[in-house]
Design a protein that fits this description.
By secondary structure, the chain is an alpha/beta fold. It has 2 domains: about 15-265, 4-Layer Sandwich (Nitrilase/N-carbamoyl-D-aminoacid amidohydrolase); about 275-525, Rossmann fold, CATH 3.40.50.620. It has helices spanning about 30-50, 75-85, 160-165, 170-175, 195-210, 275-290, 305-320, 335-350, 360-370, 380-400, 410-415, 435-450, 455-460, 480-490, 495-500, 505-520, 520-525; strands spanning about 5, 15-25, 55, 95-105, 105-115, 120-125, 150, 155-160, 180-185, 210-215, 220, 225, 230-235, 240, 250-255, 260-265, 295-300, 325-330, 350-355, 405, 430. Strands 1, 2, 3, 4, 5, 6, 15 and 16 form an 8-stranded mixed β-sheet that branches. Strands 7-8-9-10-13-14 form a 6-stranded mixed β-sheet. Helix 7 (about 305-320) links the parallel strand 17 (about 295-300) and strand 18 (about 325-330). It comes from Marinobacter lacisalsi. Pathway: Cofactor biosynthesis; NAD(+) biosynthesis; NAD(+) from deamido-NAD(+) (L-Gln route): step 1/1. Its EC number is 6.3.5.1.
């Protein structure tokens, strides 16, 4: 480490201090494997970047969120073994890691500094979050102490994730003399999250005259996607460095420390469009769910419609064409256009593609049901049977070949129950579960800017389930441009029906949409998980009782 006289004439030596943000993808529960990843990353950061300090995401030893694994009796033993391994690894740069630590019978979400073969500082997260997808208060107590540690002559403060969003921890660290603040994060993605993070970091760094290293997790964990986007802000509130979103890497930043700890600025990254960000989130969510759960491949129904078209593109971009099997399962109502477009997309993406008619199976079922159905008229029962036959075929292929079934329902359909239990909802993962229909169209347009794989008329034709002659989605639903706005207000922003009407929407559309959302909670509880891209998705975010007497209105 070199030193030279300070440029401000104070006589204090200027120190160079290199911090590497280890933006990495950890497997929840694999404490030995995650420990090996940390050791390898610290060694590489020292060799490749001459690091003084390597910073990892929140709870990197367990992965995030570990949920009730934190209640397992052997947790403390496994964490202690991991910390012993880190201390015995003879790591030359110091590192800050995240782990659950028990003190006085209470469990804390902790940041630990390991330097010279020992733990030299431990900080306990002060504000365990308990909202949206977070339920840390189920597991963790809140810390109370500020932690500032001297690392290579630099006073470094520690915080963990939510501490940055709350009043107190940053301010107390700065008051205690910290000139550089380390913030460990497992902050999940939603489509507006990075902008909110930047606004927060700008204000906290400027108001407290402290540089902040914001190190975030990357990777998919069940329905959550962590997007990385690690950042450094200087003490004046200026963005000095931003790591790419949705990718692993070791990202070095050099600081010059005399009185302030000033990062050397790096060129800004190009800012992605909303569609690009959402599409990358879907890719990462699908890839990690499939790979971390040990599936060799995926299988899905390709209908010739836009939802399955976008799902197929995401699957291929996530896994490669050789791991994706697309199946068209036509019936008498399937149009020639759908058959042609599905085949064209399968060929464009290079996936295995099979066509299995469900007509013979449908006829067999209807023959078996002829007596009990005698005297009744065809209705949605016959339509749902078509979807359920397709579900049986896909699940059979899944069982035989070990493939995960990807379902193709979007958020708009799930919201209003425009899907069939044990039919098109049958499967293991739904890439579009939190994607409104209007965004599905935008994603299709975006994907075709990379290479033209989705036929144009798949995007432009009126959406249809093709379960009845000349059927269109908008025969039974408001137009998606209207429906998605109503659903956003009701599902994500908790507007009442009356408040939505006051926004200028037709009462009939609002009443129908709200009623359908409320009625179909039982379906959503039985749907596969899928990638969360909004501030409030169906699943961990939104937990409404199935059986209830709440009436919509104010």
């Amino acid at each position: 480490m070199s030193q030279q006289p300070a440029a401000d004439g104070s006589g204090q030596a200027t120190r160079k201090f290199t911090v590497v943000m280890a933006q990495m993808d950890f497997l929840v529960g694999d404490i030995p494997g995650n420990t090996r990843l940390v050791i390898d990353a610290v060694r590489r950061a020292g060799q490749e970047h001459n690091a003084d300090l390597v910073v990892f995401p929140e709870l990197c030893l367990t992965g995030y969120p570990p949920e009730d694994l934190l209640l397992r009796p052997s947790l403390d033993l496994r964490i202690n073994q991991a910390l012993d391994a880190l201390c015995q690894a003879n790591l030359s740069p110091a590192c800050v890691i995240g782990a659950p630590i028990r003190r006085g019978g209470l469990l804390y979400n902790a940041a630990l500094v390991i330097d010279g073969g020992e733990t030299v500082a431990t900080y306990f997260k002060q504000f365990p979050p308990n909202y949206q997808v977070f339920d840390e208060k189920r597991y963790f107590a809140g810390g109370t102490e500020t932690c500032v540690v001297d690392l290579r002559g630099v006073p470094v403060g520690l915080t963990v994730c939510e501490d940055l969003w709350s009043d107190g921890p940053v301010e107390r660290s700065a008051a205690a003399g910290a000139r550089l603040l380390i913030n460990l994060n497992a902050s999940p993605y939603d489509s507006g999250k990075q902008a909110r993070r930047k606004a927060l970091l700008e204000g906290k760094s400027r108001d407290n005259a402290i540089s902040i290293v914001y190190a975030n997790l990357v990777g998919g964990q069940d329905e959550l996607v962590f997007d990385g986007g690690s950042m450094v802000y200087d003490h004046s509130g200026e963005l000095a460095m931003e790591a790419p979103q949705f990718g692993e890497g070791l990202y070095p930043v050099e600081f010059l420390y005399d009185y302030h700890c000033q990062p050397v600025s790096q060129p800004p990254l190009p800012q992605p469009s909303l569609e690009e960000n959402v599409y990358k989130a879907l890719i990462l969510g699908v890839r990690d769910y499939v790979n971390k759960n040990g599936f060799r491949s995926v299988v899905m129904g390709l209908s010739g419609g836009i939802d399955s078209a976008v799902t197929l593109a995401v699957a291929v971009d996530a896994l490669g064409a050789d791991r994706v099997h697309a199946v068209m399962m036509p019936f008498r109502y399937t149009s020639s256009m759908s058959l042609e477009d599905a085949e064209a997309q399968a060929k464009a993406l290079g996936v295995r593609y099979d066509v299995f008619s469900i007509e013979p199976m449908y006829d067999t079922f209807m023959s078996a049901l002829a007596n009990p159905f005698q005297g009744t008229s065809p209705d949605t029962t016959e339509e749902n049977l078509q979807a359920r036959l397709r579900g049986v075929l896909l699940m059979s292929l899944s069982n035989k070949f070990g493939s995960l079934v990807l379902t193709t329902g979007n958020k708009s359909e799930l919201a209003v129950g425009y899907s069939t239990l044990y039919g098109d909802m049958a499967g293991g993962f739904d890439a579009l579960k939190d994607v409104p229909k209007t965004m599905v169209f935008r994603l299709a347009r975006y994907r075709n800017t990379l290479s033209p794989v989705i036929p144009e008329r798949v995007i432009t034709r009126p959406p249809s389930a093709e379960l009845a002659p000349d059927q269109k989605d908008e025969d039974s639903l408001p137009g998606y441009d209207v429906l998605d706005q109503i659903l956003n207000l009701y599902v994500e922003r908790d507007f009442s029906a009356e408040a939505i009407v006051a926004e200028g929407f037709e009462r009939a559309d609002v009443d129908r949409a709200v009623r359908l959302v409320d009625l179909n909670e039982y379906k959503r509880r039985q749907s596969p998980i899928g990638v969360r891209i909004s501030e409030r998705g169906f699943g961990k975010d939104r937990r409404y009782p199935i059986t209830n007497g709440w009436k919509p209105g104010y």
